[in-house]
Here is the input.
Amino acid sequence: MSLRVLVGCKRVIDYAVKIRVKPDKTGVVTDGVKHSMNPFDEIAIEEAETIRTALAMGADRGLHVEVDAKEAETLSPSHVSKILAEVAKKENINLIILGKQAIDDDSNATAQMTAARLNWPQATFASKVEVKNDKLEVIREVDGGLETIEVKLPAVVSADLRLNEPRYATLPNIMKAKKKKIDKMKPSDLGVELTKHFDVLEVSEPPQREGGVKVEDVDTLIAKLKEVGRI
Amino acid sequence: QSTLVIAEHENNALSPITRNAISAAKKLGGDVTCLVAGEQCGNVVSELSKASGVAKILVAESELFKGRLPERFTPLILASQNQFNFSHIVAGASAFGKSLLPQVAAKLDVAPIGDIIEIKSPDTFVRTIYAGNALLTLKSNDAVKVITVRGTNFEADPLEGGSVSSEPIEPPADTPKDISSFIKQELSKSDRPELTAAKSGANFDMLYKLADKLNAAVGASRAAVDAGFVPNDLQVGQTGKIVAPELYIAVGISGAIQHLAGMKDSKTIVAINKDPEAPIFQVADYGLVADLFKAVPEMLEKL
Here is the structure.
């Protein structure tokens, strides 16, 4: 079966940046802050690349669905899943691979919602994907361990941390990528309306833990823990 | 206003997080209904029937629900929603709840509200973003609120004092049977308390011994799971488990923000690390700057 794979990518504040909440509590500070691709999306791309290489098939291009800055602030998995579903239909996609969550809003919903909108099966939190004719056998990370399921293509996969190790982008590849075609479109070109589902009332600092004390040795540690009744 | 709670269960026993979801549902106000779907749900239904403040239990028994595939649960939840018009649909923010509820939300064309830590009012919720480094308070404009609940932030319902009646519901005829199938589950076996329901978390052999002494669970950082020292389900952090035990002993844990996201709500945090600058000390109630290979055996001897 020939595969046409769609991978979604999100630009997020780099995982190593210490987040600062804006003084007016409308969001977090993003100006002048290092941004990177969502780490889970890197895993999704690597998986698509692996599958593609395994099947020795071609064509890759980019698609940038642009939303204006104001709309981007309230863009949520509901909207992104609609966009992805429409792109999938338009492009005859039969496999969508997405990161399981973005490290900014930590929603963990886009893959599931995309699958539901397309009536495709989903394999979330994947740690291993094997293509078997018109099916995928997927090992998933679940609460108690691992689970194996089979989904029929077309399907949506969401990548967990251990699906693969994304390669580093090398300079020659970055230069090559710059020449690749990137189509631009707007959500309206896909017939998607960005209805606002919720209002952000406040973005605030979480309560800070009070710094504790350093203890000298194991004896003192055990004594302290007994004192507060934890052991 | 009324709430549907999706019960999660395993091997015929209710999963603890369902009790947290029930107490969140009660906090929302209005009638609370529980939905139990599975192959044989008798035990789970009888556990749930003891809950006070629950109006009824909907029970769907069918082989279809083996392996808890979301493609088969979603139509059932939608059918219940059509019949009863709930204002809220709630589940625990577990692997199961997180897989399933966004599907339901998409079908209802609403935005799912994931992993909430607080209910301000029936339409206003608090959830964490950026690995817990900021709190988002949002007001939902959707007619139906589809919510997953972080277990550690809502106390477990005691499941006592009630006598709830149950009624059967049929899985819809158009439930898709051949687009996905469950093959197998390999659960890590342990006699220790389950990680999310236990006393502490930390790193392996000697740590297991320490954990046994304290009747504690063992958790791990991503690095330890990636290195294959422990199975995936022991990972604590932004993308792993969120725990809030009485006592959390972080052994040789540096304290990356992604790890802190999973444990900083613990009641008492102990950090043992030979690097005095490790960020874990900033959240630890008691910090011991020491080589873990010396400190842990000493603890084992003295406890």
Chain B touches chain A through 91 residues (CB under 8 Å).
